[in-house]
Amino acid sequence: MVRPVRAIVIAVLLFVVAAAAAWSSLALWYRLPLPELGRQASAILFGLFGASVIVALFGRRRIRAVLAFVAAFVIVLFWWSTIEPQANGAWAPDVARQVTGEFDGDQLTLTNVREFQWRSATDFTEQWTTRSYDLNKLKNVDMFMSYWSGPTIAHVIMSFGFDDGRYLAWSIEVRRLSGGSFSPLADLFKSSPLVIIAADERDVIGLRSNFRGEDVQIYRLRATPAAARLLLREYVSDANALAARPAFYNSLTTNCTTTIVKMMRVAGDAVPMDWRLIVNGYLPEYAYDRRALDISVPLSQLRSAAHIAARAHEDGLSPNFSQAIRVGVPSPQGAF
């Protein structure tokens, strides 16, 4: 029985060392404060060190090799824990400001609501506004799915509708430096801070549908006004907390999809773990299965009506944009 147990232990150690070495190498590659050549060399050396430990697992010096690797990995983890998100920087204009909000009873005042006027994906007039909302006039909440990389990956935006016809959209994004770009892999390694954007739909939705060419879809949620108010308060609380203490964006754990947990709470439902919470292009199916959407019609019908591109281009980002993109979109009975 000794040999089988030893084989299992070695197999487990092999997996752990390989995973830790790969993670450490990538962390050094993306975050070590050295010139590119220094980062590359450090990452390669740590990877080779991990490979040598794996080879040593099959020899007599395996214990010494594992102890050496553990010591090196602890040093990497300590260094990793000291990395804090950047509070100030030369941010890209569209993520330069973090929205904040104040409540006076049911009256909400938001500062730094984005209201850019886009003429193309790169040409715009920058505008940040202060807006006030009466939460007693909040009547619904919708989910936008903006597919930018095929059917499996999407950006999720939640939007709150008021009975005066106004909509307020919330988008959780990467706070890029000016000239920077989004990298799902790099953003697993503390590469960029998180920013919460509150914006006019003509801005944050119209940019994606009319100029970036993304497949934007809208799904109206089964949420009572009272539940929608609770969700909006939670967004404001998160935004204020982020303004006070910056946090990193993470492609897996702290991203636009984490808002789905809050969305399901709005529907009064639990949020069981599901692969569609990670492969978020299938969130409409998940939401439908959890009865967060209108289940009186087939999901295929909701999907068909959800695409806003034609309506958005026909409207051309007019003041009636929010109403135009919702024409023909089924609304759950009793939701608002």
What does the largest sheet look like? 5 strands, antiparallel
Tally of individual helices: 11
**Which value, in Å, is the CA radius of gyration?**
24 Å
- Molecular shape: elongated
Strand-pairing-aware structural class: alpha+beta
The percentage helix is 40-55%
Number of strands: 10
Please state the average pLDDT score. 91
End-to-end CA span: 66 Å
Spell out the helices and strands N to C. HHHEEEEEEEEEHHEHHHHHH
β-strand percent reads 15-25%
Strand order, sheet with most strands: 9-8-7-6-10
List low-confidence stretches. none
Protein described:
Helices cover 40% and strands 19% of the residues. It is α+β, with helices and mostly antiparallel strands. Strands 9-8-7-6-10 form a five-stranded antiparallel sheet. A three-stranded antiparallel sheet has the order 1-2-5. Strands 3-4 form a two-stranded antiparallel sheet. The longest helix has 30 residues, at 2-31. The protein starts with a helix and ends in a 12-residue tail after the last helix. The mean pLDDT is 91.
SSE inventory with pairings:
Blueprint: H1 2-31, H2 36-56, H3 62-81, E1 100-104, E2 107-114, E3 117-118, E4 124-125, E5 128-134, E6 138-147, E7 154-162, E8 167-174, E9 194-199, H4 201-204, H5 206-211, E10 215-220, H6 225-244, H7 259-266, H8 283-289, H9 299-306, H10 309-315, H11 321-324
Antiparallel strand pairs: 1-2, 2-5, 3-4, 6-7, 6-10, 7-8, 8-9
Short overview:
Helix content is 40%, strand content 19%. By secondary structure, it is α+β, with helices and mostly antiparallel strands.
